[in-house]
Amino acid sequence: MNNLRMVDLQGQYQKIKKEIDQEIFKVIESTQFINGDVVKEFQKDLENYLDVKHVIPCANGTDALQVAMMALDLKPGDEVITTSFTFIATAEVIALLGLKPVLVDVNPNTFVIDPQSIKNAISSKTKAIVPVHLFGQGAQMEAILTIASENDLYIIEDNAQAIGADYYFSNGTKKKLGTIGDIGCTSFFPSKNLGCFGDGGAIFTNNDEYAKKLRSIVNHGMRIRYYHDDVGINSRLDSIQAAVLKVKLKYLDEYNNKRQAAADYYDSHFKNQAKLEIPVRAEYSDHIFHQYTLKTNGIDRDKLREELEKAKVPAMVYYPVPLHLQKAYRDKRYKDGDFPVTEALSKCVISLPMHTELDKNQQDYIINNVLKIIGSI
User: Fold this and answer.
1) What angle do CA 257, 192, 372 make, to 5 degrees?
2) Which of 20, 372, 41, 50 is nearest to 180 (CA)?
3) Given pLDDT bands bounded at 50, 70 and 90, which one contains residue 223?
4) 140 by DSSP, 3-state: which?
5) Strands 79-83 vs 154-158: parallel, antiparallel or unpaired
6) What are residue 153's phi and psi, to 5 degrees?
């Protein structure tokens, strides 16, 4: 089958082309290329959607994490706990600021950070926890809030992969992921559930003082033009990207529902296969399937991926090398075997195409090839 993609951005664009083009041309005609009106409009729309007091747009998701840590006045040597099973940006910004990344293991079923492992890693130098809502599945925020409260720790949510998902508290209330901790961060990289046509990101908070400092830091530390109260960086969401996001935000729930439907269809064909384990949906939060990630069982995962490529079925491995085994982050505190769940996952997970434009014919082709290959290896 031709034109199978991990993410079909072309197909998605074609369905909303008229709206997107109109908004982009408005920006061009206005010449408000930096901090234009559309950035403020998108900011307000996203605040309303997330039901959060403050959204601070920025240049990308990595900057969002860095600015969040800067706004909380974390100092060199302070320890920040996060997961070893995530994209490198989560730990990258910790290291760049001279902070000390403390890595912990994940839940074997949901792939998200394990609360008990967080508890075990806390020391007198711990200042913050960065839970990652991975592949569209939320971390156990209720437990993490309790841990943070008991130990006077900040929570910075890495919500680059789960924007739009709800978290359900035991008392019956719910909140959007990314709005639960002290500060939430997201990426609008094109392949995300809410993606722009380049780089983009945003930071969320309900704290007025944090918001003031976050807005200052992303704009060179300025609260008043040419008066620099904070050490800042240059991290602004481009007006054209904001125009794209303003349109696509209207469709985010629809997009997430389509991903969930596609995941259900995959599940219906893979759930009884001994060589595959389908994604687990936690009871406490939505799973909006930024990725559809299977665990392989007793087969060569890399051979499966190679054979799928031959059949023109794209597949990806997120993430083949855990953070604690990456060359740049090798640390005498950690060695092979320290995080058995993370290390096992890195050897057995495989992600199949997942996007808003998947149709049944495409999925049938993918499913049939997966089943054929696992039956022969």
Assistant:
1) 70
2) 50
3) confident
4) coil
5) unpaired
6) -115, 150
Q: What is the largest CA-CA distance in the chain?
A: 67
Count Cα atoms within 13 angstroms, Cβ side, for 145.
13
**Residue 239 φ/ψ, nearest 5 degrees:** -60, -40
Cis (ω within 30 of 0) for the bond into 319?
yes
Q: What is the pLDDT of residues 328-348, one digit of tens each?
A: 888 888 888 899 999 999 999
* Tokens encoding 46: 């996203």
Residue 238 has pLDDT above 90, yes or no: yes
Instruction: Please indicate, yes or no, whether residues 194 and 274 belong to a single structural domain of this protein.
Output: no
Q: Which residues contact 305 (CB under 8 A, 6 or more apart)?
A: 315, 317, 350
**Hey, what amino acid is at 308?**
L
Answer with the one of 189, 218, 249 that is the final residue of a domain.
Answer: 249
- Residue 376, classed as helix, strand or coil, is coil
3-state secondary structure of 318: coil
Give the model's pLDDT for residue 355. Answer: 97
pLDDT in tens, 249-276: 999 999 999 999 999 999 999 999 999 9
| Domain match, 224 and 296 both | no
* φ, ψ at 181 (rounded to 5°): -80, -165
Nearest CA among 127, 139, 124 for reference residue 83: 139
Q: Which of 10, 8, 14, 12 is nearest to 314 (CA)?
A: 8
Nearest to 3 by CA among 184, 14, 237: 14
Residue 172 lies in a domain: yes
* Contact assessment for residue 50 and residue 204, using Cβ atoms and an 8 Å cutoff: yes
